[in-house]
Amino acid sequence: MEYISTRGNVKGIGFIDTVLMGLADDGGLLVPAEIPAVDAETLEEWRSLSFQELFLKIFSLYTNGEIPEEDLKELVNRSYASFRDPQVAPLRRIDDSLYVLELFHGPTFAFKDVALQFIGELYSYISRTRGEIIHILGATSGDTGAAAIAGVRGKEGIKICILHPNGKVSKVQELQMTTVDDANVLNLSVQGNFDDCQRIIKELFGDLEFKAKYHLRAINSINFVRILAQTVYYFHAFLQLPEEAKGRTVNISVPSGNFGNIFSGYLAKKMGLPIGKLIIATNENNILERFVKTGEYKPGEFAQTHSPSMDIQVASNFERYLYYLLNEDGAAVAERMKELQTEGRIAAEGEELRRVQADFAALGVTNGDCLETIAKYSREKGYLLDPHTACGVAAYEAHNGAGEIGITFATAHPAKFDEAISLLDIRQEFPAPISALSELPQVQTIVDNDKAEVTARLIEFFG
């Protein structure tokens, strides 16, 4: 297994070098040169596996044997030892047609823990075994930053800097990042939105001299390992369905802002996971819904919503899907991305649009509909949804067909977004680790939306 860039000018990269490169040196994103196939017989053999065992099976298809099996097993076991549920990501039955995959049982109560606990262990392993300096740089719309910091804090040989948009994440998300006072952690609070943070990050990774000099490594989903780790729980969710679900079409609804989580499902489906619709749930920042419905991919006006982790207009993983939509033609991808940069939009028309609509369904959920869905499921099902998961459930309701099964990903614990839930006069019990955050002092540096200022802070921190 080798890895190549979506833009065609980086080829023949191994697994560990893919981890370290993050953003490809030609500005594209790294993908496997070939996607391994999983047949029905293999899938059935995997049905009895634990999450950790399934993780090993899937990763072994992609790692080229670069990590000895026993080492990889130890990394995986350490990664999920701190999860509060022994299944890591349990599947909850809500009614005859709806299941919720709870992805919030990790240290920071968000789905990002599933990938980032492993990546933290993997970076530590690479630093130790290859003598690599690991300086992690990432942007977050809320959950990635906390999960990334939790994955690497205190680890020898690693420093991490996270940019988050000042005042545009939930209070719990902010506290989970900024109450960490470890010497290897720097929080930069940017006077802008997430897209501003992400743009600065991509520009810094695109400066190959700066990237090499300061040993920059990616923790965002531009790193393919994030995508692959998330692919595992698509298989895990499908394989947990009860016997009576066999023979029914299974659709998966995914809250998605940066296109990483839903692309993981696209990868799982291309590997052979027999699922029906991949449903993209967005909020009022609905660029992905507009693309699926009209073929136009054009960033619009930024809206602040009750689901801040999806308050994104430029979805960095969209380029990976574009690569497959354009029949794995790197030159065509580079041309489209150049068009996006110069003209502010790209479009899929005709056969391309028909393929997009065969691959995905989508729904942009308003703030009002999000709150209404939370209230409805609390009242009628006795199940409390966080605002992102509520968008996923609303999209499931819009697109799941009669007789079909829907799985919605619960991407965060509702306690992380009490600002929205309290508007409904719903009182929830906070988990102890979240309650304790408000008693801790915060450590963060507020910076302007300015690449030069961020760069200066990084040089001082990374040395």
UniProtKB/TrEMBL annotation:
Catalytic activity entry: O-phospho-L-homoserine + H2O = L-threonine + phosphate
Sites of N6-(pyridoxal phosphate)lysine modification: K112
Occurrences of domain Threonine synthase N-terminal (ranges): 2-80
UniProt pathway: Amino-acid biosynthesis; L-threonine biosynthesis; L-threonine from L-aspartate: step 5/5
Cited Pfam families: PALP, THR4_C, Thr_synth_N
Highest taxon of the lineage: Bacteria
Record keywords, A-Z: Amino-acid biosynthesis, Lyase, Pyridoxal phosphate, Threonine biosynthesis
Transmembrane segments: none
Cofactor(s) the protein needs: pyridoxal 5'-phosphate
Catalytic activity, EC: 4.2.3.1
GO annotation, biological process: threonine biosynthetic process
Single annotated GO MF: threonine synthase activity
Domain Tryptophan synthase beta chain-like PALP stretches: 98-345
Its biological purpose: Catalyzes the gamma-elimination of phosphate from L-phosphohomoserine and the beta-addition of water to produce L-threonine.
NCBIfam families registered for this protein in UniProt: thrC
Similarity section: Belongs to the threonine synthase family.
Protein name: Threonine synthase
Species in which this protein is naturally found: Paenibacillus spiritus
